[in-house]
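Schema walk-through. Below, the input block comes first and the output block second. Nothing else is stored per chain. Lengths vary across the set, and this one has 390 residues.
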Amino acid sequence: MFSTIVITGGAGFIGSHVVRLFVNKYPNCHIINLDKLTYAGNLANLKDVEGKPNYEFVKMDICDFDAFYKLIQDKKVDGIIHLAAESHVDRSIKDPFTFARTNVMGTLTLLQAAKLYWESLPEKYEGKRFYHISTDEVYGALQLTNPEGVPAPFSTKASSESQHEAYGKDFFVETTKYNPHSPYSASKASSDHFVRAFHDTYGMPTVVTNCSNNYGPYQFPEKLIPLFINNIRHRKPLPVYGEGLNVRDWLYVEDHARAIDTIFHNGKIAETYNIGGFNEWKNIDIVKVLIQTVDKALDRVKLETTETGETIETYPDMDLITHVTDRLGHDARYAIDSRKLQRELGWEPSLQFEEGIEKTVKWYLDNQEWMDNVTSGDYQKYYENMYSNR
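--- output ---
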């Protein structure tokens, strides 16, 4: 059992769910949430655990070697879960240097500091672990053989095999060759290689996971699902890249957090595990499902009678869909095969997409104050209010 775990990027979307899970599940373990609090880091995401005796927040840049090296020595850190990253593809296209600095040099900083500290101990690497969370985008893109895909929204009860058959027979496995197409995915691919190199060269106990798109509460609203929920609510345009035929595999964020917990404690050293939802969706269908779900929640659905006398539901906010120029280098399809994780460690997604998206929509509609604070920038005041006088 680990005594002190640093979770980097713990104030972010996925990180906050991991921090919450670990703080609540392991009360005898000291959980350090390390975050620089850039635009996507929000300590308000963790109000419910900030008073727990085993929780500590440290504001720090992962590129600050001296500060991190001192921290892990002072706190006697024996586990590191590394989630901190710049993660938005569009931002990486405009500013690749920031992505290289944070994702590559930041990861290397953590690795080197952990190496020096752990190698200085009598037991060295025994009982230690460095867990690096990565993305499916490092693998490049899969061919979209059938852009029509699985018929109709809310069709995810189809088996994973039938989904792969619908969109394309190939999918990413742990041995898929890396082929990144954006500055973001290139920076993550480089960081993955550094993590594996530290195991192969120095014997550091590492593990790497590559995950598909996450969705759920507390996601910064530059990403598709929270952005579109908010836009639908306020009847703003829904900008869809190209025809919206690009396919992604979606995973509910709490299921990802559970997978991280399972792999951190039980995964094999030097292994790679893919984490996915077996849940492929075209972007345009995701948008239509969001419109249907939000319109139903806000009582906007209208009933119309067809020429044959049939009564059907219509969704007025479908008119908000606006097709815009496609993203540069937009990959056609990502699809993760999680069967290794399922077979070796017993993990599998707990939610069907129908349930997950309804829970997600309800959370954002019920937490408009959180959304207002994030979109206005007021959330960044939370740190000053909570920690400036400590």
